[in-house]
Amino acid sequence: MVDASPERPVGETAVRADRTLGSGQLAAMLPDPAGLRPAYRHLARAIGDLILDGRIALHVRLPAERELAAALGTSRTTVTAVYDLLRENGHARSRQGAGTWTALPAGRAPTGVRRLLAAEDTAIDLARAAPGLPDQELTEALARVAPQLAAHAQTSGYHPYGLPGLRAAVAERFTRRGLATVPEQILVTSGAQHALTLVLGLLCRSGDRVLTENPSYPNALEAMRRGRLRTLSVPVTDEGWDAGVVESVFRQAVPQLAYLIPDFHNPTGCLMPEDARGRVLRAAQRTGAWLLVDETLAELALDVPAPPPFASHAAPGAAGQLITVGSMSKTHWAGLRIGWLRAPARLVTELAGQRVATDMGGSVLDQLLALDLLDRAHELLPTRLAELRVRRAALAAALSEHLPGWSWRLPPGGLSLWVDLGEPVGSALAERALANGVRIESGSCFATDPGVFEQRLRVPYTASPDTLREAVRRLAVALADAPLPAAAAGRPRWVA
Length: 496
Description:
Arc Repressor Mutant, subunit A, 8-stranded mixed sheet, Aspartate Aminotransferase, domain 1, 3 domains, globular
Protein backbone atom coordinates (compact mmCIF):
# COMPACT_ATOMS: atom_id res chain seq x y z
CA MET A 1 0.00 0.00 0.00
CA VAL A 2 1.29 3.47 -0.87
CA ASP A 3 0.99 5.98 1.96
CA ALA A 4 -0.04 9.52 1.09
CA SER A 5 2.66 11.33 3.04
CA PRO A 6 4.29 11.06 6.45
CA GLU A 7 2.48 14.22 7.50
CA ARG A 8 -1.04 12.99 6.70
CA PRO A 9 -3.07 12.57 9.91
CA VAL A 10 -5.37 9.68 10.63
CA GLY A 11 -8.89 10.38 9.39
CA GLU A 12 -8.23 11.84 5.95
CA THR A 13 -9.93 10.38 2.93
CA ALA A 14 -8.94 8.30 -0.07
CA VAL A 15 -10.42 7.57 -3.46
CA ARG A 16 -8.60 4.27 -3.67
CA ALA A 17 -7.25 1.94 -0.99
CA ASP A 18 -3.67 2.63 -2.17
CA ARG A 19 -4.47 6.37 -2.52
CA THR A 20 -3.46 6.36 -6.18
CA LEU A 21 -5.83 7.67 -8.85
CA GLY A 22 -5.70 5.46 -11.93
CA SER A 23 -4.99 7.06 -15.31
CA GLY A 24 -8.18 5.64 -16.84
CA GLN A 25 -10.28 6.81 -13.90
CA LEU A 26 -8.89 10.35 -14.09
CA ALA A 27 -9.17 10.50 -17.89
CA ALA A 28 -12.84 9.57 -17.66
CA MET A 29 -13.44 12.64 -15.46
CA LEU A 30 -11.71 15.08 -17.84
CA PRO A 31 -12.78 16.76 -21.09
CA ASP A 32 -11.37 15.51 -24.38
CA PRO A 33 -8.18 17.55 -24.93
CA ALA A 34 -8.67 17.46 -28.71
CA GLY A 35 -9.64 20.93 -29.84
CA LEU A 36 -8.91 22.62 -26.51
CA ARG A 37 -6.64 25.65 -26.81
CA PRO A 38 -4.45 25.55 -24.86
CA ALA A 39 -5.26 22.02 -23.77
CA TYR A 40 -3.03 21.99 -20.69
CA ARG A 41 -4.82 24.97 -19.13
CA HIS A 42 -8.28 23.44 -19.66
CA LEU A 43 -7.14 20.11 -18.22
CA ALA A 44 -5.45 21.70 -15.20
CA ARG A 45 -8.53 23.78 -14.47
CA ALA A 46 -10.75 20.68 -14.75
CA ILE A 47 -8.56 18.74 -12.30
CA GLY A 48 -8.50 21.68 -9.90
CA ASP A 49 -12.29 21.92 -10.01
CA LEU A 50 -12.60 18.18 -9.33
CA ILE A 51 -10.40 18.57 -6.26
CA LEU A 52 -12.38 21.55 -4.95
CA ASP A 53 -15.65 19.72 -5.67
CA GLY A 54 -14.53 16.69 -3.64
CA ARG A 55 -14.66 14.25 -6.58
CA ILE A 56 -10.90 13.79 -6.26
CA ALA A 57 -9.80 13.50 -2.65
CA LEU A 58 -6.83 15.31 -1.16
CA HIS A 59 -3.45 13.62 -0.70
CA VAL A 60 -4.12 11.18 -3.55
CA ARG A 61 -1.30 10.36 -5.96
CA LEU A 62 -2.02 11.38 -9.54
CA PRO A 63 -1.12 9.02 -12.40
CA ALA A 64 2.37 9.07 -13.90
CA GLU A 65 2.65 11.58 -16.74
CA ARG A 66 3.25 8.94 -19.39
CA GLU A 67 0.22 6.86 -18.25
CA LEU A 68 -2.15 9.85 -18.21
CA ALA A 69 -0.93 11.04 -21.61
CA ALA A 70 -1.71 7.61 -23.07
CA ALA A 71 -5.15 7.54 -21.42
CA LEU A 72 -6.00 11.01 -22.74
CA GLY A 73 -4.53 10.42 -26.18
CA THR A 74 -2.29 13.46 -25.89
CA SER A 75 1.41 14.17 -25.57
CA ARG A 76 3.45 13.75 -22.44
CA THR A 77 4.54 17.37 -22.87
CA THR A 78 0.91 18.45 -22.42
CA VAL A 79 0.51 16.40 -19.25
CA THR A 80 3.81 17.75 -17.89
CA ALA A 81 2.46 21.27 -18.44
CA VAL A 82 -0.80 20.27 -16.70
CA TYR A 83 1.07 19.04 -13.61
CA ASP A 84 3.32 22.11 -13.62
CA LEU A 85 0.26 24.37 -13.63
CA LEU A 86 -1.43 22.33 -10.89
CA ARG A 87 1.66 22.76 -8.73
CA GLU A 88 1.85 26.47 -9.55
CA ASN A 89 -1.81 26.94 -8.53
CA GLY A 90 -1.41 24.87 -5.38
CA HIS A 91 -3.61 21.96 -6.47
CA ALA A 92 -0.70 19.51 -6.44
CA ARG A 93 2.62 18.86 -4.75
CA SER A 94 5.42 16.57 -5.84
CA ARG A 95 8.09 14.65 -3.97
CA GLN A 96 11.20 13.37 -5.66
CA GLY A 97 10.77 9.72 -6.47
CA ALA A 98 7.26 9.55 -4.96
CA GLY A 99 5.08 11.23 -7.57
CA THR A 100 2.55 14.06 -7.64
CA TRP A 101 -0.19 14.39 -5.03
CA THR A 102 -3.39 16.40 -4.88
CA ALA A 103 -3.45 19.38 -2.49
CA LEU A 104 -5.31 22.59 -1.63
CA PRO A 105 -4.05 26.00 -2.79
CA ALA A 106 -2.45 28.26 -0.22
CA GLY A 107 -5.00 30.39 1.60
CA ARG A 108 -7.80 27.84 1.29
CA ALA A 109 -7.71 27.06 4.96
CA PRO A 110 -10.00 24.27 6.10
CA THR A 111 -13.05 25.26 8.09
CA GLY A 112 -13.36 21.76 9.57
CA VAL A 113 -16.52 20.37 11.08
CA ARG A 114 -16.03 21.16 14.75
CA ARG A 115 -19.22 23.19 14.74
CA LEU A 116 -19.99 25.22 17.83
CA LEU A 117 -23.54 26.02 18.84
CA ALA A 118 -24.16 29.55 17.56
CA ALA A 119 -25.44 32.09 20.04
CA GLU A 120 -29.13 32.76 19.84
CA ASP A 121 -29.84 35.94 17.91
CA THR A 122 -32.29 37.35 15.41
CA ALA A 123 -30.54 35.98 12.31
CA ILE A 124 -32.59 33.81 9.97
CA ASP A 125 -31.25 30.31 10.57
CA LEU A 126 -30.45 28.39 7.37
CA ALA A 127 -27.64 26.38 8.99
CA ARG A 128 -29.91 23.77 10.54
CA ALA A 129 -32.14 21.74 8.28
CA ALA A 130 -34.79 20.79 10.83
CA PRO A 131 -38.45 21.84 10.89
CA GLY A 132 -40.34 23.08 13.90
CA LEU A 133 -43.42 21.44 15.43
CA PRO A 134 -46.68 23.44 15.22
CA ASP A 135 -47.87 24.72 18.59
CA GLN A 136 -51.24 23.00 18.34
CA GLU A 137 -49.73 19.58 17.61
CA LEU A 138 -47.43 19.81 20.62
CA THR A 139 -50.13 21.16 22.97
CA GLU A 140 -52.60 18.44 22.01
CA ALA A 141 -49.97 15.70 22.29
CA LEU A 142 -48.94 16.91 25.76
CA ALA A 143 -52.56 16.77 26.92
CA ARG A 144 -52.95 13.22 25.62
CA VAL A 145 -49.80 11.86 27.28
CA ALA A 146 -50.19 13.59 30.65
CA PRO A 147 -52.14 10.67 32.25
CA GLN A 148 -49.56 8.18 30.96
CA LEU A 149 -46.70 10.27 32.36
CA ALA A 150 -48.38 10.27 35.77
CA ALA A 151 -48.46 6.47 35.71
CA HIS A 152 -44.78 6.26 34.75
CA ALA A 153 -43.89 8.63 37.57
CA GLN A 154 -44.47 5.74 39.99
CA THR A 155 -41.56 3.80 38.41
CA SER A 156 -37.80 4.41 38.33
CA GLY A 157 -38.08 5.84 34.82
CA TYR A 158 -34.93 4.12 33.55
CA HIS A 159 -35.38 2.40 30.19
CA PRO A 160 -31.96 1.75 28.57
CA TYR A 161 -33.61 0.01 25.59
CA GLY A 162 -36.39 2.60 25.35
CA LEU A 163 -40.04 2.45 26.40
CA PRO A 164 -41.48 -0.91 25.32
CA GLY A 165 -44.43 0.76 23.59
CA LEU A 166 -42.16 3.04 21.57
CA ARG A 167 -39.89 0.14 20.57
CA ALA A 168 -42.95 -1.73 19.35
CA ALA A 169 -44.20 1.30 17.41
CA VAL A 170 -40.84 1.79 15.67
CA ALA A 171 -40.69 -1.93 14.83
CA GLU A 172 -44.19 -1.71 13.36
CA ARG A 173 -43.09 1.31 11.32
CA PHE A 174 -40.32 -0.76 9.71
CA THR A 175 -42.69 -3.66 9.10
CA ARG A 176 -45.23 -1.36 7.47
CA ARG A 177 -42.50 -0.02 5.17
CA GLY A 178 -41.61 -3.53 4.00
CA LEU A 179 -39.03 -4.82 6.49
CA ALA A 180 -40.37 -7.29 9.06
CA THR A 181 -39.08 -6.17 12.47
CA VAL A 182 -39.68 -7.12 16.11
CA PRO A 183 -39.22 -4.81 19.14
CA GLU A 184 -36.11 -6.72 20.24
CA GLN A 185 -34.35 -5.35 17.15
CA ILE A 186 -34.98 -1.73 18.19
CA LEU A 187 -32.95 0.50 20.49
CA VAL A 188 -34.42 3.95 21.24
CA THR A 189 -31.73 6.63 21.43
CA SER A 190 -31.41 10.36 22.09
CA GLY A 191 -31.47 11.20 18.38
CA ALA A 192 -29.81 9.60 15.37
CA GLN A 193 -26.41 11.11 16.25
CA HIS A 194 -26.51 9.27 19.57
CA ALA A 195 -27.24 6.04 17.74
CA LEU A 196 -24.34 6.62 15.36
CA THR A 197 -21.83 7.33 18.13
CA LEU A 198 -22.94 4.20 20.02
CA VAL A 199 -22.36 2.08 16.91
CA LEU A 200 -18.97 3.62 16.16
CA GLY A 201 -17.90 3.16 19.79
CA LEU A 202 -18.85 -0.52 19.83
CA LEU A 203 -17.81 -1.67 16.36
CA CYS A 204 -14.78 0.48 15.52
CA ARG A 205 -11.37 1.05 17.02
CA SER A 206 -8.86 3.83 16.46
CA GLY A 207 -7.34 3.52 13.00
CA ASP A 208 -10.16 1.42 11.52
CA ARG A 209 -11.26 2.30 8.00
CA VAL A 210 -14.77 3.68 7.52
CA LEU A 211 -16.30 4.23 4.10
CA THR A 212 -18.35 7.41 3.87
CA GLU A 213 -19.82 9.61 1.19
CA ASN A 214 -18.35 12.94 0.15
CA PRO A 215 -20.11 15.25 0.92
CA SER A 216 -21.81 13.87 4.02
CA TYR A 217 -23.44 14.82 7.32
CA PRO A 218 -20.90 16.98 9.23
CA ASN A 219 -21.67 15.72 12.72
CA ALA A 220 -21.23 12.11 11.61
CA LEU A 221 -17.87 12.97 10.06
CA GLU A 222 -16.84 14.72 13.27
CA ALA A 223 -17.77 11.65 15.33
CA MET A 224 -15.49 9.58 13.08
CA ARG A 225 -12.64 12.03 13.50
CA ARG A 226 -13.02 12.04 17.26
CA GLY A 227 -12.87 8.25 17.15
CA ARG A 228 -9.62 8.54 15.14
CA LEU A 229 -11.10 6.51 12.31
CA ARG A 230 -9.69 6.56 8.78
CA THR A 231 -12.38 7.69 6.37
CA LEU A 232 -12.45 6.42 2.79
CA SER A 233 -14.62 8.72 0.74
CA VAL A 234 -16.77 7.98 -2.29
CA PRO A 235 -18.20 10.95 -4.19
CA VAL A 236 -21.89 11.80 -4.38
CA THR A 237 -22.37 14.18 -7.31
CA ASP A 238 -25.47 15.82 -8.70
CA GLU A 239 -26.04 12.52 -10.53
CA GLY A 240 -25.72 10.51 -7.32
CA TRP A 241 -23.48 7.55 -6.51
CA ASP A 242 -21.15 5.60 -8.78
CA ALA A 243 -21.83 2.06 -7.56
CA GLY A 244 -18.65 0.86 -9.26
CA VAL A 245 -16.52 3.22 -7.20
CA VAL A 246 -18.27 2.10 -4.00
CA GLU A 247 -17.67 -1.55 -4.88
CA SER A 248 -14.02 -0.79 -5.63
CA VAL A 249 -13.44 0.84 -2.24
CA PHE A 250 -15.10 -2.09 -0.46
CA ARG A 251 -12.98 -4.54 -2.42
CA GLN A 252 -9.64 -2.78 -2.10
CA ALA A 253 -9.84 -1.11 1.32
CA VAL A 254 -12.04 -3.66 3.19
CA PRO A 255 -13.48 -1.07 5.61
CA GLN A 256 -14.71 -2.08 9.02
CA LEU A 257 -17.90 -0.07 8.51
CA ALA A 258 -19.65 2.04 5.87
CA TYR A 259 -21.89 5.01 6.71
CA LEU A 260 -24.41 5.89 3.99
CA ILE A 261 -27.37 8.27 3.57
CA PRO A 262 -29.17 6.72 0.58
CA ASP A 263 -32.55 8.44 1.01
CA PHE A 264 -32.61 12.12 -0.07
CA HIS A 265 -28.96 12.34 0.81
CA ASN A 266 -27.81 15.13 3.11
CA PRO A 267 -26.77 17.54 1.60
CA THR A 268 -27.22 16.70 -2.12
CA GLY A 269 -30.83 15.42 -1.94
CA CYS A 270 -30.02 12.43 -4.18
CA LEU A 271 -31.96 9.16 -3.91
CA MET A 272 -29.92 5.99 -4.41
CA PRO A 273 -31.45 3.75 -7.14
CA GLU A 274 -32.58 0.25 -6.23
CA ASP A 275 -29.96 -1.51 -8.35
CA ALA A 276 -27.19 0.49 -6.66
CA ARG A 277 -28.54 -0.49 -3.24
CA GLY A 278 -28.29 -4.15 -4.13
CA ARG A 279 -24.74 -3.73 -5.41
CA VAL A 280 -23.66 -1.90 -2.24
CA LEU A 281 -25.24 -4.56 -0.03
CA ARG A 282 -23.50 -7.36 -1.90
CA ALA A 283 -20.16 -5.54 -1.82
CA ALA A 284 -20.40 -5.04 1.94
CA GLN A 285 -21.43 -8.65 2.47
CA ARG A 286 -18.47 -9.96 0.44
CA THR A 287 -15.98 -8.06 2.59
CA GLY A 288 -17.73 -8.57 5.94
CA ALA A 289 -18.12 -4.83 6.50
CA TRP A 290 -20.86 -3.43 8.71
CA LEU A 291 -23.33 -1.14 6.96
CA LEU A 292 -24.69 1.81 8.95
CA VAL A 293 -27.59 3.30 6.96
CA ASP A 294 -28.99 6.69 7.96
CA GLU A 295 -32.71 6.86 7.10
CA THR A 296 -33.62 10.03 9.01
CA LEU A 297 -34.91 11.62 5.77
CA ALA A 298 -36.49 8.53 4.20
CA GLU A 299 -40.11 9.57 4.82
CA LEU A 300 -39.66 13.06 3.38
CA ALA A 301 -40.51 12.00 -0.18
CA LEU A 302 -41.91 14.99 -2.06
CA ASP A 303 -42.01 13.90 -5.71
CA VAL A 304 -41.55 10.13 -5.57
CA PRO A 305 -42.92 7.28 -3.44
CA ALA A 306 -41.16 6.90 -0.10
CA PRO A 307 -38.39 4.31 -0.53
CA PRO A 308 -38.57 1.01 1.38
CA PRO A 309 -35.94 0.40 4.05
CA PHE A 310 -32.45 -0.18 2.66
CA ALA A 311 -32.23 -3.49 4.52
CA SER A 312 -35.28 -4.80 2.63
CA HIS A 313 -33.03 -5.16 -0.44
CA ALA A 314 -30.86 -7.73 1.33
CA ALA A 315 -31.23 -11.39 0.49
CA PRO A 316 -32.74 -13.56 3.27
CA GLY A 317 -30.16 -14.00 6.00
CA ALA A 318 -27.79 -11.46 4.43
CA ALA A 319 -28.64 -8.45 6.62
CA GLY A 320 -26.82 -9.67 9.73
CA GLN A 321 -24.33 -6.79 9.63
CA LEU A 322 -26.68 -3.99 8.67
CA ILE A 323 -27.77 -1.27 11.09
CA THR A 324 -30.46 1.28 10.26
CA VAL A 325 -30.64 4.63 12.04
CA GLY A 326 -33.68 6.89 12.13
CA SER A 327 -35.13 9.74 14.17
CA MET A 328 -38.01 12.18 14.54
CA SER A 329 -35.80 15.24 14.12
CA LYS A 330 -36.49 15.76 10.41
CA THR A 331 -40.06 14.48 10.17
CA HIS A 332 -41.38 16.01 13.41
CA TRP A 333 -39.16 18.03 15.76
CA ALA A 334 -35.48 17.82 16.72
CA GLY A 335 -36.34 19.15 20.18
CA LEU A 336 -37.80 15.77 21.13
CA ARG A 337 -34.33 14.16 20.86
CA ILE A 338 -35.82 10.82 19.88
CA GLY A 339 -33.99 8.49 17.54
CA TRP A 340 -33.57 4.77 17.10
CA LEU A 341 -31.59 2.05 15.47
CA ARG A 342 -32.60 -1.28 14.04
CA ALA A 343 -30.04 -4.08 14.30
CA PRO A 344 -29.76 -7.78 15.13
CA ALA A 345 -31.16 -8.38 18.63
CA ARG A 346 -27.81 -9.52 20.01
CA LEU A 347 -26.19 -6.27 18.86
CA VAL A 348 -29.03 -4.21 20.36
CA THR A 349 -28.27 -5.84 23.70
CA GLU A 350 -24.58 -4.95 23.43
CA LEU A 351 -25.35 -1.38 22.41
CA ALA A 352 -27.78 -0.96 25.32
CA GLY A 353 -25.01 -2.12 27.64
CA GLN A 354 -22.65 0.45 26.18
CA ARG A 355 -25.32 3.14 26.42
CA VAL A 356 -25.69 2.65 30.20
CA ALA A 357 -22.08 3.73 30.73
CA THR A 358 -22.95 7.30 29.71
CA ASP A 359 -26.76 7.51 29.48
CA MET A 360 -29.11 5.47 31.67
CA GLY A 361 -32.02 6.06 29.34
CA GLY A 362 -33.94 8.73 27.49
CA SER A 363 -36.60 11.10 28.80
CA VAL A 364 -39.87 9.27 29.47
CA LEU A 365 -41.87 12.37 28.57
CA ASP A 366 -40.13 12.74 25.21
CA GLN A 367 -40.67 9.06 24.45
CA LEU A 368 -44.37 9.26 25.31
CA LEU A 369 -44.71 12.30 23.05
CA ALA A 370 -42.84 10.48 20.29
CA LEU A 371 -45.14 7.46 20.61
CA ASP A 372 -48.20 9.66 20.40
CA LEU A 373 -46.91 11.49 17.31
CA LEU A 374 -45.90 8.24 15.58
CA ASP A 375 -49.37 6.84 16.19
CA ARG A 376 -50.74 9.86 14.32
CA ALA A 377 -48.08 10.00 11.60
CA HIS A 378 -50.63 9.01 8.95
CA GLU A 379 -52.46 12.27 9.75
CA LEU A 380 -49.49 14.55 10.39
CA LEU A 381 -46.95 13.53 7.74
CA PRO A 382 -49.03 14.34 4.61
CA THR A 383 -49.56 17.86 5.94
CA ARG A 384 -45.83 18.22 6.62
CA LEU A 385 -44.95 17.02 3.11
CA ALA A 386 -47.41 19.42 1.48
CA GLU A 387 -45.94 22.25 3.51
CA LEU A 388 -42.40 21.33 2.45
CA ARG A 389 -43.38 21.31 -1.22
CA VAL A 390 -44.71 24.87 -0.88
CA ARG A 391 -41.57 26.00 0.93
CA ARG A 392 -39.27 24.31 -1.59
CA ALA A 393 -41.08 26.08 -4.44
CA ALA A 394 -40.85 29.43 -2.63
CA LEU A 395 -37.12 29.00 -2.08
CA ALA A 396 -36.47 27.98 -5.70
CA ALA A 397 -38.49 30.94 -6.99
CA ALA A 398 -36.67 33.39 -4.72
CA LEU A 399 -33.26 32.07 -5.78
CA SER A 400 -34.21 32.33 -9.45
CA GLU A 401 -35.36 35.90 -8.97
CA HIS A 402 -32.59 37.30 -6.77
CA LEU A 403 -29.60 35.05 -7.56
CA PRO A 404 -30.04 33.85 -11.15
CA GLY A 405 -26.34 33.01 -11.48
CA TRP A 406 -26.65 30.18 -8.96
CA SER A 407 -27.75 26.70 -10.03
CA TRP A 408 -29.21 23.61 -8.38
CA ARG A 409 -31.24 20.50 -9.02
CA LEU A 410 -34.64 20.23 -7.39
CA PRO A 411 -34.36 17.20 -5.08
CA PRO A 412 -37.16 14.59 -5.04
CA GLY A 413 -37.30 14.77 -1.25
CA GLY A 414 -35.46 15.86 1.86
CA LEU A 415 -35.13 19.31 3.35
CA SER A 416 -32.62 21.35 1.35
CA LEU A 417 -31.15 22.47 -1.96
CA TRP A 418 -27.46 21.84 -2.77
CA VAL A 419 -26.68 25.09 -4.55
CA ASP A 420 -23.74 25.70 -6.90
CA LEU A 421 -22.48 29.28 -6.53
CA GLY A 422 -20.30 29.11 -9.63
CA GLU A 423 -17.15 30.13 -7.72
CA PRO A 424 -15.46 29.03 -4.46
CA VAL A 425 -16.75 31.77 -2.16
CA GLY A 426 -18.97 29.78 0.22
CA SER A 427 -17.20 30.55 3.50
CA ALA A 428 -16.72 34.23 2.68
CA LEU A 429 -20.38 34.52 1.73
CA ALA A 430 -21.44 32.77 4.95
CA GLU A 431 -19.46 35.32 6.98
CA ARG A 432 -20.99 38.25 5.13
CA ALA A 433 -24.47 36.70 5.26
CA LEU A 434 -24.29 36.52 9.06
CA ALA A 435 -23.60 40.25 9.15
CA ASN A 436 -26.73 40.65 7.01
CA GLY A 437 -28.86 38.57 9.35
CA VAL A 438 -28.69 35.09 7.78
CA ARG A 439 -26.89 32.15 9.34
CA ILE A 440 -25.80 29.63 6.70
CA GLU A 441 -22.86 27.29 6.15
CA SER A 442 -20.54 26.79 3.22
CA GLY A 443 -20.57 23.44 1.45
CA SER A 444 -17.09 22.84 2.86
CA CYS A 445 -18.76 21.91 6.18
CA PHE A 446 -20.01 18.73 4.51
CA ALA A 447 -16.68 17.68 2.99
CA THR A 448 -14.58 14.75 4.13
CA ASP A 449 -11.54 16.70 2.90
CA PRO A 450 -11.10 20.20 4.33
CA GLY A 451 -11.57 23.12 2.00
CA VAL A 452 -13.54 21.50 -0.82
CA PHE A 453 -17.16 22.26 -1.82
CA GLU A 454 -16.43 25.96 -1.30
CA GLN A 455 -18.54 26.65 -4.40
CA ARG A 456 -21.59 25.12 -2.69
CA LEU A 457 -24.19 26.11 -0.12
CA ARG A 458 -26.77 23.88 1.49
CA VAL A 459 -29.95 25.95 1.67
CA PRO A 460 -32.77 24.33 3.69
CA TYR A 461 -36.42 25.00 2.94
CA THR A 462 -37.68 24.37 6.48
CA ALA A 463 -38.63 28.00 7.24
CA SER A 464 -41.84 29.70 6.15
CA PRO A 465 -42.07 30.96 2.53
CA ASP A 466 -41.91 34.60 3.65
CA THR A 467 -38.84 33.91 5.79
CA LEU A 468 -37.14 32.07 2.93
CA ARG A 469 -37.82 34.93 0.52
CA GLU A 470 -36.37 37.43 2.98
CA ALA A 471 -33.33 35.21 3.60
CA VAL A 472 -32.59 34.99 -0.13
CA ARG A 473 -33.00 38.74 -0.51
CA ARG A 474 -30.44 39.26 2.26
CA LEU A 475 -28.07 36.74 0.65
CA ALA A 476 -28.33 38.66 -2.63
CA VAL A 477 -27.52 41.91 -0.81
CA ALA A 478 -24.54 40.27 0.89
CA LEU A 479 -23.26 38.98 -2.43
CA ALA A 480 -23.66 42.36 -4.12
CA ASP A 481 -21.93 44.43 -1.41
CA ALA A 482 -18.41 43.84 -2.79
CA PRO A 483 -16.39 41.11 -4.52
CA LEU A 484 -15.90 38.09 -2.29
CA PRO A 485 -12.46 36.55 -1.71
CA ALA A 486 -12.28 32.96 -2.95
CA ALA A 487 -12.30 30.24 -0.31
CA ALA A 488 -11.79 32.40 2.73
CA ALA A 489 -11.89 30.44 5.97
CA GLY A 490 -15.17 30.65 7.83
CA ARG A 491 -15.67 30.79 11.55
CA PRO A 492 -16.52 27.38 13.05
CA ARG A 493 -20.22 26.93 13.61
CA TRP A 494 -22.64 24.10 14.14
CA VAL A 495 -24.98 22.59 11.57
CA ALA A 496 -27.75 20.00 11.64
